[in-house]
């Protein structure tokens, strides 16, 4: 059963609650979205981009026995507000309200409320887990790095691809484009830090979510992870161009609870199958085609096995060959 819900006193939050078959006491999963103006399903306003990622993930989690909740971010779906004006800590408070709603729901076992967070949502979940008791945390396509670190690595990967091009690469090296790009990014961040406004205009016309950048830049993810005392799973694809796989090796030494890491072969940032080579520069052209593909079956199998072992009291199913799983 799936129904529309509203929660939060000062700023009502709208979402969809799905209940599995059977009576109360179910474990529950809250889905936390990635960056941008994404609604409860993972879609942008006016249908410009429709991923339906969180709708599909919620359907999967409910099918294996979990209550699920997904909600509209500020300024999306049925929600009031402006997503550009929302800071990182505003997003954390929204997620906290959602956890509290689940913990108080009669069909939910309050001790088994798990957060499944995607992309930027992994940072929101990290901040939430440092101050809120959670049953478990799933990092999807992210984890450990804060936003500034992740964006810096994305720029570096893009520059590396450009510099490897035979003719263009030589020209870019000659013009010292990579160094200039980093200086430009640092200058913009400094402008955000100096401002006290939620939104800042760049080049007179382009609005930027300055508060969001400031708060993310100041947040120390590694220190926050040290306060997380629950089972943690970090799941990422080897074709993910937006998140660093290698840095996840730090996770077991940071969190207090048991941590596992699963790197899924041929999976991209949106958890779908990608057989093409890893390329940041080509990711935009491939985006619409990849959205037609299913969620990666090995990723779903890994999630089901981990959830069954930790929250359903079932024997872990034999895992597919995934490289690597570290605990």
Summarize the structure.
By secondary structure, this protein is an alpha/beta fold.
Give the SSE layout.
Blueprint: E1 2-7, E2 13-18, E3 26-32, H1 53-63, E4 67-71, H2 88-103, E5 108-118, H3 121-129, E6 136-140, H4 147-163, H5 166-174, H6 177-194, E7 200-202, E8 206-208, H7 210-218, H8 221-225, E9 232-237, H9 251-254, E10 259-264, H10 280-291, H11 297-311, E11 325-326
Parallel strand pairs: 3-4, 3-5, 5-6, 6-9, 9-10
Antiparallel strand pairs: 1-2, 2-4, 7-8, 10-11
Kindly describe this structure.
- Strands 1-2-4-3-5-6-9-10-11 form a 9-stranded mixed beta sheet, sandwiched between helices. Strands 7-8 form a two-stranded antiparallel ribbon.
- It has 11 helices and 11 strands.
- The protein is 38% helix and 18% strand.
- Residues 315-327 have low confidence and may be disordered.
- It folds into 2 domains: 2-146 and 219-326, Alpha/Beta hydrolase fold, catalytic domain (Rossmann fold, 3-Layer(aba) Sandwich); 165-212, no CATH class.
- Helix 2 (88-103) packs across helix 3 (121-129) and helix 6 (177-194) crosses helix 7.
- By secondary structure, it is α/β, with parallel strands linked by helices.
- Residues 52-271 form the Serine aminopeptidase S33 domain.
- InterPro entries: AB_hydrolase_Est10, AB_hydrolase_fold, Hydrolase_4.
